[in-house]
Design a protein that fits this description.
The structure holds two protein chains of two kinds. Chain A is mainly β. Chain A is about 0% helix and about 60% strand. Chain A contains no helices and eleven strands. In chain B, a hairpin with a 3-residue loop joins strand 7 and strand 8.
Chain lengths: ~110, ~110
């Protein structure tokens, strides 16, 4: 049973395109997150949703838009992709303080 | 701003050679300190949560300890399968943000 799942696992696309990454958790957690891990492996929070409500919105470009259709899903849509968006994007969920991460989506913008 | 510094950046040990990884932190209101293990190409795997100074947690060959300024991850008689990057993170109770360090890349040589 996969607790936090993401699709796709790999995403290669051209600069200027729009793409989405999907995340689902079957843990019954109330809070979900998006993180970006750069080439130096540094993990940084982007967004957090609690029961479909946005609670953390870090200073990321407004080309990034999270959407939570229900508390088990948090999707990330990226408009007008740029070279600097290339990274690994991780979804996570939590009930209380401990966060559980998905396997990551490796995004490469050419 | 919350800060997490991990040292060393990389550590190579012989199988069975015990050692410790350090995580120094500054946070306005610590709600929890977390240790994660990350294998190449995978998401961070939750290991421990520590909430207050003096607390200790153990799991197999790993033991995490916490003071008011730092945490240690002690690894006793490590095996090659313990090779991974170990990440430390602090949760700020004021803004509910999890701030990660850049990790220690641990290699255990058979």
């Amino acid at each position: 049973d996969t607790a936090v799942s993401q699709t796709p696992k790999y995403l290669v696309t051209q600069m200027g395109n729009d793409k989405s990454i999907k995340c689902e958790q079957n843990l019954g957690h109330d809070t979900m997150y998006w993180y970006k891990q750069d080439s130096k492996k540094f993990l940084k929070i982007m967004f957090s949703y609690n029961n479909k409500e946005l609670i953390i919105n870090e200073t990321v470009p407004n080309r990034f838009s999270p959407k939570s259709p229900d508390k088990a899903h948090l999707n990330l849509h990226i408009n007008s992709l740029e070279l600097g968006d290339s990274a690994v994007y991780f979804c996570a969920s939590s009930l209380g303080t401990s966060q559980y991460f998905g396997p990551g989506t490796r995004l490469l913008v050419l | 701003e919350d800060q997490v510094t991990q040292s060393p950046e990389a550590l190579r040990l012989q199988e069975g050679e015990s050692s410790s990884l350090n995580c120094s932190y500054t946070v306005s209101g610590l709600r929890g300190l977390f240790w994660y293990r990350q294998d190449p190409g995978k998401g961070p795997e939750f290991l421990f949560t520590l909430y207050s100074a003096g607390e200790e947690k153990e799991k197999e060959r790993l033991k995490a300890t916490l003071t008011k300024k730092e945490s240690f991850l002690h690894i006793t008689a490590p095996k090659p399968e313990d090779s991974a990057t170990y990440l430390c993170a602090v949760l700020d109770g004021g803004n509910e943000k999890l701030t990660f360090g850049t990790g220690t890349r641990l290699t255990i040589i058979p």
